Amino acid sequence: MNVKILKYDPSTDSAPYYKTYNVPWKKNITVLEVLVYIHENHEAIAFDYSCRGRVCGRCAMMLDGEPMMACYTPVKKDGDIVIEPLKGFPVIRDFIVDKSKILERIAKIEARVRSKPLVESDITAVMDPALAKKIGDLEWCCRCLSCVAACPVINEMKDPEKFIGPAGLVALGLRYYDPFDEADRIIEAVQNGLYACIMCGNCNNVCPAAEINHLEVYSELRKEAEKKGLKT
Ligand code: FES
């Protein structure tokens, strides 16, 4: 198959450029295996991966214009494909992009907040299984930021500080459901752009974690915001 990839080393190249390589196709070959083949048989390319199982989130990139995880996305047939770095992020080199701006914002909100110390009854209490499932599902978010690459709002927003994006809203949803967290996550969600989201569902469509229902999380946060009179 012919594999066209977008290469760019800002320290030496004046602009990104495409280069095409021939790679033997085989059934179930993943995008990551395609990149490894090029790296080992044609020339060095920079890309990042670790777990090979949609857990670390490091291998997110674009295949034929759609965000996906290279480690578990197969190239379905022998033909021409285009692989590009994850859309919307500054390129450090080839497929390595700088996600720090959004990840640092998420890190600031994701820490659990407690106003009172834990007591014995907190520790021994049995969590409602339905709530435990909701929390467990959101914990599948691996911060690959494919959702951000697919989000029309964050990519067109002139002031990204006004919207934390889908991964950030999922992190806020997780803390909102978390019975050990005592911060007001509804106010935080509104302040971070809960109503900037247009509920298009692109984030849900590209998310590698089928366990996460993005629109359900945003709807529940909105319902609570409305109860508090915080709808903007
Ligand atoms: S290598 Fe970890 S998610 Fe793909």
Structure in a nutshell:
This protein is α+β, with helices and mostly antiparallel strands. It has helices at residues 31-41, 100-110, 120-124, 129-138, 146-150, 152-156, 166-177, 185-191, 202-206, 214-227, and strands spanning 2-7, 17-22, 60-63, 66-69, 81-85, 91-93, 96-97. The termini are far apart.
Features:
10 helices; 232 residues; elongated; binds FE2/S2 (inorganic) cluster; 5-stranded mixed beta sheet; 37% helix; Ubiquitin-like (UB roll); Fumarate Reductase Iron-sulfur Protein, Chain B, domain 2; alpha+beta; 2 domains; two-stranded antiparallel sheet
Name the CATH homologous superfamily of the largest domain.
Alpha-helical ferredoxin
Count of DSSP H/I helices: 10
List all distinct small molecules, including ions and cofactors, that are bound in this structure: FE2/S2 (inorganic) cluster
- Class of the largest domain in CATH? Mainly Alpha
Residue windows where pLDDT falls under 50 for at least 5 positions: none
Q: Major sheet, described briefly?
A: 5 strands, mixed
What is the number of beta strands? 7
The CATH architecture assignment of the largest domain turns out to be: Orthogonal Bundle
Shape type:
elongated
Order of helices and strands: EEHEEEEEHHHHHHHHH
- Residues in helices, as a percent range: 25-40%
User: Overall mean pLDDT score?
Assistant: 95
Reported by name, the CATH topology of the largest domain is Fumarate Reductase Iron-sulfur Protein, Chain B, domain 2
Task: List the strand order in the largest sheet.
Answer: 2-1-5-3-4
